[in-house]
Write a structure and sequence with these properties.
There is one protein chain. This protein is mainly alpha-helical and about 325 residues long. The protein folds into two domains: about 5-185 and about 300-330, 3-Layer(aba) Sandwich (Rossmann fold), CATH 3.40.50; about 215-295, Orthogonal Bundle (Tyrosyl-Transfer RNA Synthetase). It is about 55% helix and about 5% strand. The protein contains 14 helices and five strands. It has helices spanning about 20-30, 45, 55-70, 85-95, 100-105, 110-115, 125-135, 150-165, 215-225, 235-240, 240-255, 260-265, 270-295, 300-330; strands at about 5-10, 35-40, 80, 145, 175-180. The strands form two sheets. It has a three-stranded parallel sheet with strand order 1-2-3. Strands 4-5 form a two-stranded parallel sheet. Strand 1, helix 1 and strand 2 form a beta-alpha-beta unit. Helix 4 packs across helix 7 (about 125-135), helix 9 packs antiparallel against helix 13 and helix 11 packs across helix 12 (about 260-265). The chain is globular, with a radius of gyration of 21 Å. The two termini are about 25 Å apart. Bound molecules: adenosine-5'-tetraphosphate. Adenosine-5'-tetraphosphate binds near residues 19 and 185. Adenosine-5'-tetraphosphate binds near residues 19, 20, 24, 184 and 199.
Amino acid sequence: MTKNRIFSGIQPTGNLHLGNYLGAIRNWVQLQHDYECIFCIVDLHALTLPQDPLQLRHSTREVTAAYLAAGIDAEHCIIFNQSMVSAHAELAWLLGCLTPLGWLNRMTQFKEKAPKDRSNAGLGLYAYPVLMAADILAYKATHVPVGEDQKQHLELARDIAGAFNRRYEQDFFPLPEPQIFGPATRVMSLRDGMKKMSKSDTSDYSRINMTDDADAIALKIRRAKTDPEPLPDTLAALEERPEADNLVGIYAALAGESQEAALRRFAGQNFSTFKDALSELAVEVLGKVGGEMRRLMADPGHIDTVLRHGAERAAAISMPVLRAAQEITGLLRP
Ligand code: AQP
């Protein structure tokens, strides 16, 4: 088994945003030099909520383009879409048979995403964390970089790995470690500092998309919810103002500095000055990535080749793990 292998992914569910970039993709670009990395576009997870088929294919290519545009090297790392490798769904069944309902009932993401009338929620949405465990364990990944929002699912993946190892009395799956980095582990909506920035938010002004141009970025930051007070000079005072805290956190993450250092620059200044500086920085960082994404999206054939090649390499790792798990489980493969 490889000592340090990373698995992580993003759902192709619409507009990739600054949270996905700062909380996930940008960290992966750094990690690719130190780990064996597998980066997935988790299209089966996307199906846990209704998707338009054409849009799903488009988004799958767009997430791939984002990985490449941000600087993930497709020769060095493995980039592929989940549905191309059957080990994910097959292993999810084996693991689902070991997962008590009580564990799934604790998952807050299900509670947030399921309709009010729970009897109308899909089985897939409920079982999402089991598929996520399969994604990780099919590669015996040791590390999983995620944003704060995915931490609970990762803890469940560790529990499921432990349940398998105990049931069959062997140390088959390593327990994957979460990796949560930097000041942008939870980027919040620009319209509501208590809600995370999300692809599925219906308000366009709630998020900065990775493909937004300079004008759109500047407009959204100008319209971002703030309060009339100037920026405070202590972190404790900032924490009491969620929207201001979020914007300073975004600045810090974009600038690659601590929240404290970012606050020192702007303490006592009004929001219009701060927002101008934030826009300029966001355009500088995202502008390049967004432009490269648009260039890559103009050649879907190239993106599909990357994904096919990645899927072959992913299957070469995960199918033998699945076969071994089937063998341990007692499934006959005559
Ligand atoms: N707001 C965020 N701040 C920091 N990190 C974030 N991530 C997502 N939102 C933020 C990180 O991005 C990776 C991919 O997330 P995902 O696509 O699997 O699903 P999600 O967490 O449910 O993300 P979204 O954007 O909110 O999508 P929808 O609207 O489809 O649910 C993960 O590492 C996540 O932590």
